[in-house]
Amino acid sequence: MWCTSGVSSWSLILFIKDICHLSNLYDLVLFADDTNIFFSHNNIQTLTHIINSEMLGLSDWFKANKLSLNVKKLNYLIFKPKQRRQEFDLNIEINGHKMIRTKEVTFLGVILDENLSWKSHISCKISKSVGIIGRSSPCLSTLALKSLYYSF
Q1: How many C-beta atoms surround the C-beta of residue 69 within 10 A?
Q2: Domain stops at, among 64, 79, 103
Q3: Gyration radius of the chain over CA positions
Q4: What ranges in the chain are assigned the alpha helix state H?
Q5: Cα–Cα distance between 88 and 134 in angstroms, integer?
Q6: Which residues contact 72 (CB under 8 A, 6 or more apart)?
């Protein structure tokens, strides 16, 4: 999500250490080169206003720390309960770039969708497993293939 080309890992830690203290209105999850920001509010208009205001603060922080933000990789996901199927998009912008809404995202290796179901994650994992077994079948015995199947 953040672009920091040419900065060593140690320098990156020094640059981003204070990003967690920019605001109390959101939660940040930092892992390696991934930064995830979590907002919540009951009112969608208020939420949109808060996010856009906080995005300005983040943009200023990036400029002050001489870091660039790859706006093409920015997107947002709205988590909602299954009973609330109302469709809406937020008008979120940063540096004049409108963020695109996505229906699912990979978060620390787990595929999350807007309903917090496991469907996308499970089907992706099953597809990979079937592909590995299919490509391995000419090279492995039936016993080894069964062992591989049970390990997945």
Answers
A1: 20
A2: 103
A3: 20
A4: 9-16, 44-64, 119-136, 142-151
A5: 41
A6: 97
Contact 18, 58 (CB under 8 A): no
pLDDT value for 4:
44
93 within some domain: yes
CA distance 143 to 87: 49
Structure tokens at 30: 């930092």
CA-nearest of 104, 102, 101 to 119 is 104
Residue-range definition of the domain harbouring residue 129: 118-152
What is d(CA 147, CA 152) in angstroms, rounded to the nearest whole number?
A: 9
Q: Is the pTM of this model over 0.85?
A: no
pLDDT tens digits along 49-77: 999 999 898 889 888 888 888 888 888 88
| CB 69 within 8 Å of CB 2 | yes
**Which residues of the chain have a pLDDT value below 50?**
1-6, 8
- In this structure, are 80 and 150 located in the same domain? no
Residue 9 C-beta-side C-alpha neighbours within 13 Å = 4
Q: Which residues contact 8 (CB under 8 A, 6 or more apart)?
A: none
